[in-house]
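Handover notes (outgoing to incoming on-call)

Open items:
1. GyrI-like domain-containing protein: sequence verified, structure written out, both below. Nothing else pending on this one.
2. Nothing else urgent.
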Amino acid sequence: MYHFKKVVENHFNCPYYLRVEVDINNFIFGGNDLKIEEFKDITIAYMRNTGEYGKQNEKLMEDFKEFLRKNKLFTEETTILGIALDNPALTPTNRLRYDVGLVIDKKSEINLATRKIDDGKYAIFEVSHTKQDVLQFWKNIQNLTADLSVDDKRPIIERYVYNKVANHLCEFCIPIL
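GyrI-like domain-containing protein structure tokens:
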């Protein structure tokens, strides 16, 4: 079984160091247990940011949601995915890619680029959708995934389902073998 540290090191071909200073046993993810889901035949219509992660990705998300509203695509059935495609430790800042996409039916016609999400199993962590809790999740990801067989060939996906976001929750989908 791969540990997250080993998976990250193999995928990005560099050492991975994480210093955790919190008691992971007290970290709660929306009160739910870890769930495993099989992703199959998921297509997204997406926008991409190329450049520094952070504020530009937040702006992309806001621009994307505005596009959805203007095109009457932001409904109670909406699921938005956020996908960081590159490791900032290895990729020049000006080449970092981040996609924000709407899960669509393959037959949907939306004036955006489309692409398929990698099929496979994902461990789903539900997290309170606050800046503090999301940062806490990323800080503790190595411990949270220590007992999982993480698939280093697929990116971690942030999932924003309309009804969960309305309840201040989001999900992190960790690819597993």
